[in-house]
Design brief:
The protein is α+β, with helices and mostly antiparallel strands and 237 residues long. Helices cover 48% and strands 20% of the residues.
Length: 237
């Protein structure tokens, strides 16, 4: 029987079933993480939408589990193996987030460069001025570095090197989020007031890339991971 709630869940309105990590108690009362498959039509399983300020094709929900009864075969893997099952999907999720950030950054940077070439002041393209050219060049460098780290993470994951892929995927996701934010911010700045108009399609990207510092893993948790696992520093949380 499942009770509780999960927040910021996407896709539940379109899925036939969801995977839920819950805590089960053994005979001594010790709590163990377990992974379950829960049909979205199960009795007691409901969800309510969360109003979001960002433009996204996905809606976010709070999922409520009120005495949701499940058969034993709803359990995935061992009864105490929920976290291991969950962690198996974290590396590809972060690699995917890296690709998303790099793609949005590339889109924003492309729009900025095209505008900087086309927009002229006193018969000179604004991109000829270092005040605009240098920030765009710096954003391009950050973007390419993030993409390279993402490719490294994907390669290590394909080779079955989970530990190496974990380090690279975390670094790649961090780098891609920062690069995407800088690309979008500079794209808005390059466009001036036009950067916040619907016509040029740049300003709407700001909320999405800002979210990437938070999800699917926050910038601070990535720094915790690198400090502990890459640098060997004591655990800080």
């Amino acid at each position: 029987v499942l009770n509780g709630q999960k927040t910021f869940i996407s896709g539940v309105d379109e899925a036939d079933a969801v995977m839920v990590v819950g805590r089960t108690a053994d005979q001594k009362g010790n709590l163990r993480p377990s992974l379950f498959i829960v049909p979205t039509g199960a009795d007691g399983f409901t969800w309510t939408p969360i109003g979001m300020e960002i433009v996204s094709p996905e809606k976010q929900f709070v999922c409520h589990f009120d005495d949701v009864r499940l058969p034993y075969d709803a359990l995935v893997g061992a009864e105490d193996g929920g976290l291991l099952q969950l962690f198996a999907g974290l590396n590809p999720e972060r690699i995917m987030a890296t690709a998303m950030g790099a793609g949005i950054g590339r889109l924003a940077l492309g729009k900025a460069v095209a505008y900087a070439k086309d927009r002229q002041v006193f018969k000179t393209p604004i991109g000829a001025h270092q005040g605009l050219a240098h920030p765009l060049a710096a954003a391009k460098i950050e973007l390419e570095l993030a993409r390279l780290m993402g490719q490294k993470a994907a390669s290590l994951y394909d080779e079955g090197d989970d530990e190496g892929a974990g380090e690279a995927a975390n670094m790649a996701k961090y780098a891609a989020a920062e690069a995407a934010i800088h690309c979008v911010d500079q794209a808005v700045q390059t466009h001036g007031g036009n950067g916040l108009t619907t016509e040029y399609g740049v300003g709407m990207l700001a909320g999405v890339v800002r979210l990437m510092r938070i999800a699917p893993v926050s910038r601070e948790m990535i720094l915790n991971y690198v400090a502990q696992h890459s640098l060997g520093l004591p655990k800080s949380y």
